[in-house]
Write a structure and sequence with these properties.
Structural class: mainly alpha
Low-confidence stretches: none
Radius of gyration: 14 Å
Shape: globular
Distance between the termini: 19 Å
Mean pLDDT: 82
Number of helices: 5
Largest sheet: 2 strands, antiparallel
Length: 98
């Protein structure tokens, strides 16, 4: 289990869980064959991938395909690095803490 407070972009604080979270985000929201083949469907809101992270401290983060990918693309991060994805995840955590 991981507390939302432990998610960090600092290199010295990253561990295997950080790497795994980034990979899950990439596979679920960027690399999904379903996402790439149903772009028109997503634009019509017929279908969209979503990912939830549930942290040990009770914080729940919802990452919607359209919102999260569009947010990074608007910052010219269409093919984001691990650091950019973690930065966006940390921002989502900070915005959604109770």
């Amino acid at each position: 289990p991981l507390s939302s407070r432990d998610v960090s972009v600092a290199l010295e604080k990253r561990d295997r869980l950080h790497w795994c979270m980034v990979r899950v985000i990439v596979c679920s929201l960027w690399r999904s064959k379903l996402a790439s083949t149903t772009l028109k469907s997503v634009q019509r809101n017929d279908h969209s991938n979503a990912l939830y992270f549930v942290f040990e401290d009770g914080v729940i983060i919802h990452l919607g395909e359209a919102d999260f990918v569009t947010k990074l693309a608007s910052k010219h991060h269409a093919a984001p690095s691990e650091y950019q994805i973690l930065t966006a995840l940390v921002q989502e955590i900070q915005e959604n803490k109770p």
